[in-house]
Amino acid sequence: MLKVEQAYEEKSVAALYQDAWVAGTYVEKRFAFSWSRLLHQTQVTEINRVIDEHRPEMTVEVAPGPARLTTGIRGIRKGVLIEYSQEMLAQAKRRLEARGLGPLWEVCHGNAFHLEDQRLQCDFLYTFRFIRHFMAEDRTRLYKNFHLSLKPGGLLMFDVVNKEVRQKIDARKNSESNGELDVYDVTYSVEEFSQEMADHGFTVLFLKPVIRQFELQSWISYTFDRRIGKWADCLVRLLEKIPSPNPLEWIALSRKID
Ligand SMILES: C[S@@+](CC[C@H](N)C(=O)[O-])C[C@H]1O[C@@H](n2cnc3c(N)ncnc32)[C@H](O)[C@@H]1O
Predict the structure, then answer these.
(1) 3 in any annotated domain
(2) SS3 165
(3) Distance CA 196, CA 204 (A)
(4) Residue among 256, 230, 31 nearest 149 (CA)
(5) Which of 101, 107, 224, 244 has its CA 20 to 30 A from that of 163?
(6) What's the gap in Å between 190 CA and the centre of ligand 1?
(7) Cα(27)–Cα(254) distance, integer angstroms
(8) Is residue 2 domain-resident?
(9) Angle 41-44-45 (CA atoms, 0-180°, nearest 5)?
(10) Looking at the predicted structure, is the pLDDT value of residue 51 above 70?
(11) Which residue, by CA, sits nearest to atom 13 of ligand 1?
(12) How large is the average pLDDT for residues 39-65?
């Protein structure tokens, strides 16, 4: 459900990240806890697995922010980053250069809603913490742009928020925003997500569950990270090995239907 004042469409979402402080503190603020670091690492692992298996000639990351994921990606043959915020772009360039990855990535200022300007034909396109922030009409515009930018049979990967778990979290949360940016997240059941992808010319190949025991994993992180960080981290990782039908999120890999 959309809250008053929440960012949820092209202009308001873009505006949230055009701020040097938001860009400069993004990774340290949002990925500070054991459970959120595990989420980050699982996303990096899944992107690397696809690159390893499919060996894409050209990989595109849309809305990379400060290159949170990009700095962990290996096996890039030709990589393109498309980001709208100049503040985020500056952070991304700095972080990639610092790790010697600058030459692998072409870093472009661009708008995900107008990818025709970039004339891309890529094999693999991924984008995280981005599509989820938009309502249906804007998501349709984004899917069209991604479809256009992928080669026939090209692969699309992004994060999908589980409706059931998110509803429970929202019901418990008080109205304080906890310093988080106030931005909308669309949530799904597996069936709803598969239907949305089919409606936009993609077939879902798999959904990888991430943060399978959110309630317990987040409690351990918030309670013990500061005191016994290493042990809390181990416990959160161990819990991830227990299967669950209700993870916090999935990482979805879909294929373009031609
Ligand atoms: C929540 S951050 C996600 C960053 C990164 N993908 C991650 O997972 O950490 C959203 C990013 O989308 C970028 N963004 C917002 N609107 C955009 C647009 N229309 N085109 C491209 N990037 C956009 C923002 O500048 C910001 O860097």
Answers:
(1) no
(2) helix
(3) 10
(4) 256
(5) 224
(6) 24
(7) 27
(8) no
(9) 85
(10) yes
(11) 63
(12) 98
Q: What is the DSSP string of 231-244?
A: HHHHHHHHHTTS--
Ligand 1 neighbours, Cβ below 6 Å, are 10, 13-14, 17, 63-65, 68-69, 82-85, 88, 111-113, 128-130
Tens of pLDDT, residue by residue over 210-254, are 999 999 999 999 999 999 999 999 999 999 999 999 999 999 999
Nearest CA to ligand 1 atom 16: 14
Q: Strand pairing of 150-162 and 122-127?
A: parallel
Query: pTM for the complete prediction?
Result: 0.95
Q: Which amino acid is at 58?
A: M
Residue 247, C-beta contacts closer than 8 angstroms, at least 6 positions apart: 162, 165, 209, 210, 211, 212, 214
Domain count, the chain: 1
Find the CATH number of the domain harbouring 62: 3.40.50.150
Structural domain boundaries enclosing 174: 10-256
| Sequence-separated (6 or more) residues with CB below 8 Å from residue 32 | none
